[in-house]
User: Fold these one by one.
Assistant:
Number 1:
Amino acid sequence: MGDELSGPGARADPAGKPGGLDPGAGPDPGGGPGPDGEPGGLLPQSFFGRSSVAVAPDLLGCVLERRSPEGVVAVRLTEVEAYTGAADPASHAYRGPTRRNAVMFGPPGHAYVYFTYGMHFCVNLVCQPEGTAEAVLIRAGAIIKGVPLARLRRSAARTDYELARGPARLCQALAIDRVLDGADVGDPGSPLRVLGPAAGGSPGPGEPRPAGAIRTGPRVGVSAAAEVPWRFWIDGDPTVSVYRPALPRPRRKT
């Protein structure tokens, strides 16, 4: 599932062969829109009880909120990727359940957090009914609340656009780690929650766009099923990460 980092200063790259998304695709998020500039209500479990390919574009513009003793940091989602479990060789669930991916086989609307490269975390949102392991990888977004705290956690970021540009950077900015693996993002008392999009207003960085502005293309850094266009992002948003294909592994010398 896209175990990679996005480079500093990256922008959405047309080399990913983006395509437009049908403006009529997907239902309205169950959380309902909030007032101008404010997130909507919590997304219900039923929102996630669908195919990850249907859920992924509907998550764009929604808000992932992390509450911790240090404070609240929230990010409006601008880039995601869908993974379809047993049918998807790029998915962690492709070969069945393990201790690492157990949450993917549980009920929808829970966070699947994994550790990668020995130093980074990535967060996914589980989709489909229990027993069918699908998930959406949260790749990037715009910090809309708790910017000072996110800056402290991401001191290497040169601009606020870079605070959550890339899945590992997003987890660092929100202090997401394996402790949150299995968190119910629809529970009002959860430290990690997903809220519906804001309504009205002129969209700024990280804010919802019309459906026609959602682009699709290959997923980043995967070698299996690399051509599948299950990466979704808001076209032109400065918080979207760069597209990079998987690099071939060097052959061992014999």
Number 2:
Amino acid sequence: MTEIASNSKSAGSKQAVALSRYAPRGSRVAIWGSCPELYVQTGTIMATRYGQMGPIPAGHFREYYEGILMRDLERSRPAVFVDAVHSGAFNFNNRATQGHETFPALAAFVRRNYQLKEEIGGVRIFVANGNTNFAPAETVAKSMESSEEPTGWTIRFNAGSGAEIYRVSGWSGAEPEFTWTEGTSAKLKLPIPDHDAALMLRMKLGGLIHPRELPVQNVAVYANGQKIADWQVSEPADFAAPIPLELTRNVEDLNIELRIPDAASPQSLGMSYDGRLLGVRCYFVELRRR
């Protein structure tokens, strides 16, 4: 993960606190670089369809994807633009060759519409001209550290939700309401909302079932290599599993694996011509402090 994740042990990292001064929860933010955890930590919304943005390699599709990115930005007009390219960051770590200034159309857009307000830990925060929605740093930090609301987040798995950035392997393409697991193992890499508290994992799942041959899908749930639950999934329902504190206290990410030994294809069950090896469909994943 990025420097923000490695240097912070709570949802109130110094970069998140700074960003929250200018972008209240629910506002749209564009982040250039590989730093999606800032969206989670601040409760802000992606201003483009891409969970991470960076230089697009030269080739036939460069102009196409750059056009999509600029249209998304022009349409959403985010309150804040963040350039998270710096020497300690993951993947995008060279400001000279990967900073937003290397993309001429984007650089012009930022110069025209934003002002640099502060740089913290190498992360630059640009605020839209005319945006007066500021809060004192002390107020933001206090609210993030001592909020009475449970610390955590929810990731939707419907098409367009941006959940792809958390999927590691074993997932099919997103559909209008959910995403199917594909194969007998599905893995996620999730940001940890609170390193100093035991967490609760909650997922809404529905199984690929057939009344006679396959009445339920048996799902074994692992967190950072340790088994935490056995679920029997049929009709869509909420499932929960506690995650011991020792599994998250000294690590950067939470690796979740769903092992689904009875995954089958709808074709093999005589349900359709779909040959994919499906197990369960996921509607959302939630991780919160217990």
Number 3:
Amino acid sequence: MENYSDLLIVSFMVGFIVNLWSRRFGKFMPSNLAVAIYEIFKLPKFFKKSKSEKITQYKKKLSKLIYSSILTGVISVIVTYLVFENVVQAHIFPCFYLGFIWLLLVMALVDIRIELLPDILTIPFLILGVVAANFGALDVTAIWSSLGLAFGYFMPVVACLLIAWRNRYAFGGGDIKLLAGLGAWFGIGSLLSIVIISSVIMLVFCLVNKKRAYAYGPFLVFAAFIEMVFLVGV
């Protein structure tokens, strides 16, 4: 896969569409799996203008949506290129790594919009990591992947128990499943690195923006991309 042009074009298209579809999650979550799948894949009405909405407001809203989708597409292209340039296994098992990139991207967008990570995204990501490890597509073995999954799940649970007196909602259920999924993909050592990197970035973000709390998912996703591109195998 020396020529990335076709892959990068597809990556841009997926990134563009992912931003559009991420808007739909807030309209039906929480929901059961069947309803969620139906709502996601039914014909969307992204550009439907309400009768009471002025033309100028509608154009402004549409432009913002298109620009943000283009930005998401560009981010998808950059991450895809960096992963396939730096991770040898990505050339042998491209489907696993594309799933890794695109699932994390849509999870970050959904968490930013509604501060919720639905099971329809976290569970497939977790399963994909376990399957990839069993196929030898990762730097971690199947055993270490399973241990990383268990560690990723129980680590935030224990942390929540320790700080429940201060903030009982420090970790949401989606964050816990995302950490379990990242543990399956990276193993225990790299997962600890991801947690440290994401926590530092989130702390800086909250201090700069004078926020006491923010969705943790996007920072985990950003740290996971850093770990995958620059630190795995180092």
Number 4:
Amino acid sequence: MVLDRLVNPQELVKKPHLAIPIGYIFVSIAFFSTSIVFPSEYSIVVIAFTTMLLIPYVIKIFELDELNIDLGELKISGDLGREELEVWVRKCLRDGYTPEQIKKSLIENNLDKGILLLYHIKTLSEIKEDYIKKSNFFTRHSRIIAFYFHLFLGMFMAFLMVYMTSQPEYRNLVFKNQMDLIYGPGGYFQIPTALQAIVLNNLKIMFLCVLLSLFYGAGALLILTYNASIASVLYGGFLENAISGGSLMVIGAYLPHTTIEIMAYLFATVSGGILSKGIANAENRGFRFLMADGLKFLVAAVLLVIIGGIVEVTVPRWLLS
């Protein structure tokens, strides 16, 4: 596909903020495509088209985060720097190889390098100590989280721009499903006051993210894109009210728990993707690391959902009462 070459996935890994224009551009393209192909079914089809455009990027990003490495692949050359060695050592450690195995492989494959080899062995020990001190399940997959966060932000900005610049008739067509969800019977502003009901509903969405990622790889993008469109309608309405002379306090009332819930869905999406990779690589050394990291993200997502529910039943009613 031509669009998946718009930005090199490796650049997105290094500079995740580039996902903001990617999300914005792809949503814009999805709106244009929907207006031609399915002009009467905007509210859902634009979500599907955006997801289809983004899937190749997400698949490649996850491939770059794969925890597989060949211990015997590193050959020392005179221009091998600490950065290249550090990348190799960190991947080996993430794959479950012990420092002793890495050191042995480094020596066996570079016996003819003499003093240069001794220097790199010393560097290996420093990298190992640094990795042990700084590495955790969050930092090991921080680039995936950063990518998803910036992507969500870019999609939200695109949907918000369409919402804010549209005529009422066009807006009601484009965001029909989202507006029904927010303002309709049983919608966002008619939410139950019971914490249990709110948490259970959000847990359903969260586990749906996990399952879609687990079985469809990048499938949870559909949920993230849909939530970006819902958030744009919600905060677009708040901004319009503020522009008309209303209070901005309502934004401050709803921003905390919606932010927490979005982070929970992001963590659930990452969890499903990691678990999917772990199952696919069950015979590799990285299996236990992947499964452990995936489950930790899942637990973190559940905790965020519970915290978000508590904030939802307290902060808005406290600030707006």
